[in-house]
Design goal:
globular, single chain
């Protein structure tokens, strides 16, 4: 009689959740953050609103991020910045530079998001690094139609030769897809590093908003409040910091509104906290800034 074969001992699956949050977060601060941002005014009285340039990879959700911020203050889903309905697009849907103001009720808030063509991995495809750098410094006028073959020059009618402080952006926000940060193309990373180096020389701060966290982590998909106890999200944030060079304190995992038909407090508070930090560091830079 043959003996029964021994079965391999199955190892327990590693726990996807940390014992303690890797970042402290108050989920009940939505109204306080919203009120703080509604009452914000730029530190320089000569500047009516703070410009924030939103850049990033194609399909990461740049325009959706702007819509999501708008949704928070409207209290309903907004779709002012047009987005593509096709998943997996490799070409940017945004083709022109456009500024988006944010309203809360009838009040116009003193910050403006500038939406720019998405970065593509090919060397000359998508928004060129020079166009983004020029946009940061206020040299690119709204309505400029991005040219994949050639960056904007001073001869173009959309080139602003003498930008004021009000024309300039005082923070560059990168939108990065949490699903793809692990295998982001080296050419795209190189583009981001070039932009980072050029604007860092002038003291322009950069922030990363990491989107699609619910798609990147099942734990977070089931419960958004697990975002700061998720090992996977923590690892992706750390990898993003290493690859792009933005400090961990300036990286915010968020969820854009995508399939929802109503706003939700947990989505709102993550977006509001990211926006508060963006506005604060942009205003700090404004106060330190000299006209270029």
């Amino acid at each position: 009689m043959g003996g029964s074969e021994s079965q391999p001992v199955q190892q327990p699956k590693p726990n996807p959740e940390l014992d303690k949050p890797w970042r402290k977060f108050d989920w009940g601060q939505k109204e306080a953050l919203k009120q703080k941002l509604e009452n914000f005014s730029p530190g320089d009285p000569n500047v009516n609103d703070i410009k924030i340039l939103v850049a990033g990879q194609v399909g990461a959700g740049k325009s959706s991020f702007i819509n999501s911020i708008d949704s928070v203050f409207k209290g309903r889903i907004s779709a002012r910045a047009l987005v593509s309905s096709s998943a997996g697009d490799s070409v940017s849907f945004t083709q022109k530079l456009k500024g988006f103001t944010i309203r809360s009720g009838r009040k116009m808030l003193p910050f403006v998001f500038k939406d720019i063509m998405g970065l593509e991995t090919a060397a000359l495809a998508g928004s060129q690094t020079d166009d983004i750098i020029n946009a940061v410094f206020g040299h690119v006028k709204d309505g400029y139609n991005f040219n994949q073959e050639q960056a904007l020059t001073h001869k173009d009618q959309h080139y602003n030769c003498d930008p004021t402080l009000s024309d300039q952006a005082f923070c560059l926000v990168y939108i990065i897809d949490a699903n793809t940060v692990d295998f982001t193309d080296d050419k795209l990373v190189d583009k981001l590093k070039i932009i980072r180096q050029r604007i860092s020389d002038w003291g322009i701060p950069q922030v990363v908003c990491m989107t699609k966290v619910d798609e990147a982590c099942p734990l977070v998909k089931d419960d958004l409040r697990k975002i700061y106890t998720s090992k996977r999200i923590k690892e992706k944030v750390e990898l993003c910091s290493t690859k792009i060079g933005v400090p961990l304190t300036n990286i915010f995992p968020v969820k854009n509104y995508h399939y929802e038909t109503d706003t939700e407090d947990d989505i709102d508070v993550l977006l509001l906290k990211a926006l508060e930090q963006i506005v604060q560091i942009a205003d700090d830079r404004l106060l330190d800034c000299e006209s270029y």
